[in-house]
Amino acid sequence: xxxxxxxxxxxxxxxxxxxxxxxxxxxxxxxxxxxxxxxxxxxxxxxxxxxxxxxxxxxxxxxxxxxxxxxxxxxxxxxxxxxxxxxxxxxxxxxxxxxxxxxxxxxxxxxxxxxxxxxxxxxxxxxxxxxxxxxxxxxxxxxxxxxxxxxxxxxxxxxxxxxxxxxxxxxxxxxxxxxxxxxxxxxxxxxxxxxxxxxxxxxxxxxxxxxxxxxxxxxxxxxxxxxxxxxxxxxxxxxxxxxxxxxxxxxxxxxxxxxxxxxxxxxxxxxxxxxxxxxxxxxxxxxxxxxxxxxxxxxxxxxxxxxxxxxxxxxxxxxxxxxxxxxxxxxxxxxxxx
Length: 338
Known about the structure:
Layout: H1 2-17, E1 31-33, H2 39-42, E2 46-50, E3 56-57, E4 71-74, E5 78-79, H3 82-89, E6 97-101, E7 120-127, E8 143-150, E9 165-169, E10 187-189, E11 211-213, H4 218-229, H5 235-242, E12 247-249, H6 254-268, H7 274-283, H8 293-303, E13 328-329, E14 334-335
Parallel strand pairs: 1-2, 2-4, 3-5, 4-6, 6-7, 7-8, 8-9, 9-10, 10-11, 11-12
Antiparallel strand pairs: 13-14
Helix pairs in contact: 6-8
């Protein structure tokens, strides 16, 4: 009995003294981290760091070399001592994409402009006046997206001639003049500025512009109202003319979707009479009553040309929100297995 006790205590001592080997060996698979607690163990392998909502990140959490880390997304993560955290981020050599949330803080640390390797930045602020530096100092920057509660200053946007992509969601009603200084801009994202109702003639100054995204703006509603009155003259066509025939991407107005069923309901769900009615009634015991053809035709007409290019079919990946599609087997009255 005493021998068993000795063996037991020896095992406890061995376990207690065993070195911590929880830091994993890297494999060929890319690794994404969603928790601060996992950073230490995956620091040699992680390629994307995307923390959970309302998490807190300190500079000590980033005190590793991160040889493979390319992307950090902290949309709803609180930074403990932001200046120190940004200083640590600046040491990550392979980092190219950085999303930071400064909502609830007084000012954005100026040392953010000292980061030299990041080419794609997205920041979330309460107001534009929080930004106390100019992004033009980040000469390597090619993509910038800003989400602000209040657009009360555009000083930080002056001189951004190196940008190829720019996004601004700040509840603006008109485009700031600084956008027209972005000579090399290829993509402009103005989505979710719900009161934006005009793209001015000055947009023609952007000779390299290929794409404008205007999801969930007043322009979408205006397009629908114009379409109802005159199908040949639309708001989107006017914008295309101003921006050297660039592509316009937008969502579909809910009223427009509703109108499909109101106007095309008889084609989507055709009414069967007499012999056809009896035949389809009997067939419905095994097959669906209506064919999908009518609905497919209307959806094809609605979505296949949403970006104003010919022979371009819309795909699920084109959605502005993640989609989960559930299917149902109408013949077996069970959820589909595919």
